[in-house]
Design brief:
The complex is a heterodimer. By secondary structure, chain A is α/β, with parallel strands linked by helices. Chain A contains 14 helices and 14 strands. Chain B is an all-alpha fold. Chain B has 4 helices and no strands. Helices cover about 55% and strands about 0% of the residues of chain B. The chains are: A alpha/beta, B mainly alpha. At the A-B interface, loops of A face α2 of B.
């Protein structure tokens, strides 16, 4: 019989709360985590002033020798890892077992360090004033490398840096690692730290929200006819994934079972999403889960509130589910956490499974007429469900789809 | 530059940047075994002292240093 993979620990930092309970409370109260960024006014021709920010700055929770090589992106991830290990009640021996691995990713390393480092080197034409830590803050795998060192991970370490699918892909890597018998436990997740560079790269492409700077809680607006772009955000999350029998032996609490995962590539345009690619990855995940598509009770969509992306994704979902499965994008509450969105949005799927809360599409008033006729959730809905799907998509046409089910013995 | 000035700056950097307890810093303190710095910290200590005192120290200089006093002597020799 195939090895089953369950989620036994969760650590989260998001603009709407730093735990499952806090995030659930924000969803229930329709609370936004998007704030006005007054300091962004110093950049010429830069119009967006909104961002989702995490309220956690107690960096001294991380020991100095671990903290010194971390920027905010890795610090947030490390905190989520600490919380997940505590939640899962794992011993240091279990964390450092050769059968325990990690997979983490982010879109960017520490932008705040990179900004200073590169500009100083360019100004001085010299590396002399740089400490040894700069590169370790902003290297591509800064999150997984720092976490592995801090928590003394001895098994596999697979960085999953793929922009907006970084943490969903990490979950998939962990699921497959355990299912294939390579590991018994995997810490998986992702992170992103707030910085104007993250917003800037999207503003250059005309993809940021700029009309709601004075009313931050009204943006982003996934699927809404008045949406005007995405809002970048920061955040991090860690899931502890375990092989079922191992979790049962130690009496672990089980949040849910990952029953399906798929990743695929459009192989087309570098930024424009493909309906076929999105549809394909959802179909592959459903095949992996060996379920009927309509057994899924809630879909957490990627929908970032960009004009094109939301339309394409809605039609991809329609081709599989028509209007028979409730859909929401929870980015309306907090913005787009980029490398951390996959784990945070999968965690919202866990909230749906445990509490039957299907969260609304915050700020959805009137669906864009070009979007497909889905079962969009306008206000929080309470419905008993058994299975959720979480989808995420990234530049480069990278697609991921995760299916999680309430744990049952059989 | 006086020995006292160098020691004062060194203590300040050790406390502020490396979170060493000031009361633990003695001239004969071994920066690795007593103050819990490692080889990367030693490189960064050199960079920080270079900035504070305007002397030109190199990363390899750090490899010769064991004690707080060694560091003071190193800076004096370059000043």
């Amino acid at each position: 019989m195939s090895r089953r993979v369950v989620i036994t620990g969760v650590g989260l930092l998001s603009p709407i709360g730093n735990s499952l309970d806090e995030i659930q409370a924000s969803l229930e109260q329709n609370r936004s985590g998007v704030t006005y960024m007054s300091e962004w006014g110093n950049f010429d021709g830069f119009d967006t002033r909104v961002c989702g920010v995490v309220d956690w700055y107690d960096y001294k929770q991380i020991p100095r020798k671990d903290r010194r090589s971390m920027g905010r992106v890795a610090l947030l991830a490390a905190k989520s890892m600490m919380d997940a290990i505590e939640d899962a009640n794992l011993s240091s021996k279990e964390v450092s077992s050769p059968r325990t691995g990690i997979s983490f990713g982010s879109t960017m390393g520490a932008n705040e360090t990179m900004f200073k480092y590169i500009s100083q080197i360019a100004q001085d034409s010299s590396f002399a004033s740089q400490t040894s830590m700069g590169f370790l803050h902003f290297m591509s795998h800064t999150v997984s490398a720092n976490i592995a060192a801090m928590f003394k991970i001895k098994g596999r370490n697979i960085p999953s840096c793929s922009a907006c699918t970084s943490s969903s892909m990490a979950i998939g890597i962990g699921y497959e690692s355990i299912k294939l018998g390579k590991c018994d436990t995997m810490f998986v997740g992702g992170s992103e730290g707030e910085h104007i560079l993250n917003a800037g790269i999207f503003e250059i492409m005309g993809a940021t929200s700029t009309k709601y700077n004075q009313t931050p809680d009204q943006t982003p607006r996934p699927f809404d006819s008045e949406r005007d772009g995405l809002v970048t955000a920061e955040g991090a999350g860690t899931f502890v994934l375990e092989e079922l029998e191992s979790a049962k032996r130690r009496g672990a609490k089980i949040y849910g079972e990952i029953i399906g995962y798929a990743t695929s590539c459009d192989g087309e345009h570098i930024t424009t999403p493909s309906k076929d690619g999105m549809e394909s990855v959802m179909r592959l995940a459903i095949e992996d889960a060996q379920i009927d598509a309509l057994e899924i009770g809630y879909i957490n969509a990627h929908a970032t509130s960009t004009p094109k992306g939301d339309i394409v994704e809605s039609h991809a979902m329609y081709s599989l589910f028509e209007d028979r499965v409730p859909v929401s994008s929870t980015k309306g509450y907090m913005g787009h956490i980029l490398g951390g969105c996959g784990v945070v949005e999968s965690a919202i799927g866990l909230i749906a499974l445990r509490s039957n809360l299907l969260p609304a599409n915050k700020n959805l008033v009137k669906v864009d007429s070009e979007c497909a006729d889905l079962d969009y959730i306008y206000t929080n809905r309470y419905k008993e469900i058994d299975i959720i799907m979480n989808n995420n998509f990234a530049f480069g046409g990278i697609n991921t789809s995760i299916i999680i089910k309430n744990y049952k013995e059989q | 530059m006086t020995r006292e000035k160098i020691l004062e700056e060194l203590k300040s950097v050790l406390v502020e940047e490396f979170e060493v307890e000031e009361s633990e810093i003695e001239l004969e303190s071994d920066i690795f075994t007593d103050l819990d710095l490692d080889s990367l910290d030693a490189i960064d200590l050199v960079v920080n002292m270079d900035k504070q005192l305007g002397v030109t120290l190199k990363g390899e200089d750090a490899q010769k240093v064991r004690t707080v006093n060694d560091f003071v002597e190193l800076v004096l020799s370059k000043a």
